[in-house]
Amino acid sequence: MTAMLLNGKELAKKRRSEIKTQVGRLKEMGITPGLAVVLVGENLASVTYVRSKEKACHEVGIYSEVIRLPETITEEELLQVIEELNRREEIDGILVQLPLPSHIREQVVINRIAVEKDVDGFTPVNQGKLLLNEKGLFPCTPLGIIDLLKETGQSIAGKHAVVIGRSNIVGKPVSLLLLHQHATVTMAHSRTVGLKQIAREADILVAAMGQAKKITSDYIKPGAIVIDVGINRDENGKLVGDVDFEAVCEVAGCITPVPGGVGPMTITMLLQNTLQASLWNHHVELAGRIDG
Fold first, then answer.
1. What is the mean pLDDT of each run of 10 residues along the chain (292 residues)?
2. Fewer CB within 10 Å of terminal CB in the chain, N or C?
């Protein structure tokens, strides 16, 4: 069996076109969605991510502002920057690029972001809304995963989904989103006893444990949908996921590649969250797709 490729690049392109159309309609009303990204220090990966976000905003017509701060900034000074952004009406979304320098407490900073501008979906209030299945802004990578799953044309409802990974950014929120889509969800992790056997029961397997090529073909139920969230480097420096792609392709029904799978959808969902925040902040409703 050769698995169907779930092409995140193509889906992201389609979604961004839809977002661009919606942003254009808002601009006709005199409203331009605005995203502020706070970058502390010169972490190379963070600088690259922020540049990608800037470019994506420009492509769809969202106003983008990057606040670049020195690594030596104090926690209190950073909190003051967040407070100023909370007050600015032209800024609908605030994203603090992680990781932060070790002397700054990440959760303290995240907690200071206004809930209605929390386009990363990391504040406790938005996390609570996700738990309760209420309207809110939710983490971007899990939203992208759900969109990719829907793109297969298969119903999520009634499926057994196994999520390997328990982070606040991916594992926990995607488990809740799957549950809200009426899947039966098992959350596992690196210390789960009998992980391979549990994984083999999955109709949908989400691998988000951060171990290169850990998920081999004997973890996969024939015909399963496999979502690979991992971003790792192998012994040759090549970018690989948590899934042994070539081997798993022979067993799975659908699979995301790395790169080109979940990654492009993450930034796309950030754009979607910024648009959604702008609609809510300006009390505007638009007909058509904005929910991914």
1. 91 98 97 98 92 96 98 98 98 97 97 98 98 98 98 96 97 98 97 97 97 96 97 87 96 96 96 98 80 49
2. N
Q: Which CATH code of 3.40.50.12780, 3.40.50.720, 2.60.120.10, 3.30.390.10 fits the domain covering 140-263?
A: 3.40.50.720
Name every residue whose Cβ is closer than 8 Å to that of residue 65 and which is 6 or more positions away in sequence.
34, 35, 36, 37, 91
Token pair of 57, please? 């905003």
Residue 213 annotated to the active site: no
Full-model pTM: 0.95
Q: Is 211 a catalytic residue?
A: no
CATH 3.40.50.720 in the chain is located at 140-263
Residue in 22, 92, 97, 244 annotated catalytic? 97
Residue extent(s) of CATH 3.40.50.10860 domains in the chain: 30-114
Q: Is 154 a catalytic residue?
A: no
- Give 149-159 pLDDT, tens digit per residue: 999 999 999 99
What is the CATH architecture of 30-114? 3-Layer(aba) Sandwich (3.40)
Q: Write down the catalytic residue from 118, 120, 147, 228.
A: 120
Q: For residue 214, what are its two tokens?
A: 């850990």
The token duo for 272 is 């979607």
